[in-house]
Amino acid sequence: MSSMAKTADDAERERPGPPGQHSFVVVASRLPVDRIENPEGEPEWRPSPGGLVTALEPVMREAEGVWIGWSGDAGPAAGPFRANGLDLVGMGLSADLVRDYYEGFCNATLWPLYHDVIAPPQFHRRWWDAYVAVNWYFAQAAMAQAAPGATVWVHDYQLQLVPRMVRSQRSDVRIGFFNHIPFPAYEIFAQLPWRRQVVEGLLGADLLGFQRRADAGNFLRACRRATGRRTRGPAVRVTDPAGTREVRAAAFPISIDSAALEEIARREDVRKRAAEIRLALDQPATLLLGIDRLDYTKGILHRLKAYGELLNEGRLGPRVVLVQVASPSRERVEAYQALRDDVELTVSRINGDHAEVGSPPVHYLHQSYPREEMAALYLSADVMLVTPLRDGMNLVAKEYVACRYHEDGALVLSEFTGAADELAGAFLVNPHDIEGLKDAIVRAATISPGEARRRMRAMRRRVREHDVAHWAATFLDALGRTPR
Ligand code: GDG
To answer: Ramachandran region of residue 317, left (φ > 0), alpha (ψ -120 to 50) or beta?
Structure first.
């Protein structure tokens, strides 16, 4: 990668290459496949089906789409290839760029900053340079793939400069951007030494999608404050060499493939597995469940604190169990290593204080599971605990609801998640308020079947009608209607 030391402005002065062949281009930090080694020791691509690829697959096929992303490992670019019936372009990041761009600027600067500085963000100029360089590398790949007049959909905080970089050379394409994580209040965003460049980078798009209206509002305020631009409702007027245009910023809450997940939950083997899970836990009267990436935004420690106190006070009765899945995440970033130590210490203390031989009150699983096992866990749990301190949406909450086809179970949900705007049937909590959280857990654990049904039914309707296909279609429809 020879262009690594470029600044954003240098990058824009370069001449564009010839246009590509694809009329729909997805640009995301990660590919929808993982590189694995087969038994013969050769590399192979295995699908890593997330909601995003499921939602975009039909559009990808119809519009001869291509997906540009990184495999997740340091190493050379895989180049264009086909896997799973999709055209993919694998981007390569050197070990230095993985450290400075991915672990550094993305995960130790932007992630904590955009999640309300729950952990202190670090600002390093070398990391910013790597961010500019990698964004430019992705922008070039997007331009090389995009046919004249193509639609380019850029995803998430790792690639905020790509819209402007693409626009500067390809005013023929339509550019959408979706931010999967929150956009912080200006007082927090303003800490970023490169705040103006980030806002300008995003304003290269025609349409900017956020999870919540509050996020779109925060972005519009950042436009006014960091760039001095005027906004009118959801629109920002931008003048660039190709003329004056209006950029729209609005909420498009993401969702899950609800029907597909419910189908898994209804499978006989999955139902059997759910029963086995309860049996293995010695048929608890109440099974509480937490499923999160092991991340400091997810409020796992607050949840454990509340649970530990409830056990001390005996408010949940004797036969209660918490299963906490904390799937390994960003293990080379310092704050994540510290969090893992804290969580594991806290779990051990609770178990040390309350376990009887063979029956610990917390089952802590630092592992990743197949989707079937996840569905069985959702199906087995009486109460789902989703207590982030800040979360763009939180798909786990929606997944729990999608699996509860018996219309039972209860959801305790932090009001600081995007999902809280939609799932009014949940017990909404402020996870910092430990007493309030404890009360909500007790209420959820002792809910009457009638109330549970009423709440769950409303949430299920929402998740069924607003699934991920609806999300993608709504965004792409709005993007298609932006003025040319
Ligand atoms: C970001 C934003 C936003 C977790 N462990 C396993 C596993 N998972 C799956 C869950 C769920 C997904 O990972 C996690 O999604 P979340 O939305 O809960 O959180 P983030 O990873 O932080 O996602 C978030 C999202 O982007 C989408 O825009 O909602 O706010 O932070 O689907 O099920 N899946 C499997 N095994 C595991 O062990 N198979």
So the answer is: left
Angle at 154 between CA 150 and CA 159, to 5 degrees: 135
Q: Which of 171, 101, 135 is nearest to 6 (CA)?
A: 135
Using CA atoms of 26, 29, 32, 35 in order, give the dihedral in degrees to the nearest 10.
140
22 part of the active site = no
* CA-nearest residue, atom 26 of ligand 1: 180
Estimate to the nearest angstrom the gap between the alpha carbon of 315 and the chain centroid: 34
Nearest to 374, CA basis, from 258, 266, 270, 256: 270
Query: Which class for 82: exposed (0-12), middle (13-18), buried (19 or more C-beta within 10 A)?
Result: exposed
State how beta strands 79-83 and 43-47 pair. unpaired
- Spatial CB neighbours of 241, under 8 Å, sequence gap ≥ 6: none
What's the CA gap between 75 and 31, in Å, rounded?
14
CA distance 70 to 292: 23
22, 115, 155, 180: the active-site residue: 180
Instruction: Give the pLDDT confidence of 395-453 residue by residue, as tens digits.
Output: 999 999 999 999 999 999 999 999 999 999 999 999 999 999 999 999 999 999 999 99
Q: How far apart are CA 162 and CA 226, in angstroms?
A: 19
Please write down the long-range contacts of 35-42, taking CB distance under 8 Å and 24 or more positions apart: 35/71, 35/72, 35/73, 35/78
The protein residue whose alpha carbon is closest to atom 27 in ligand 1 is 180
Cα 396 to averaged position of ligand 1 atoms, centre (Å) = 6
Beta-bridged to residue 291, according to DSSP, are: 325
Q: Is 0.85 surpassed by the pTM of this model? A: yes
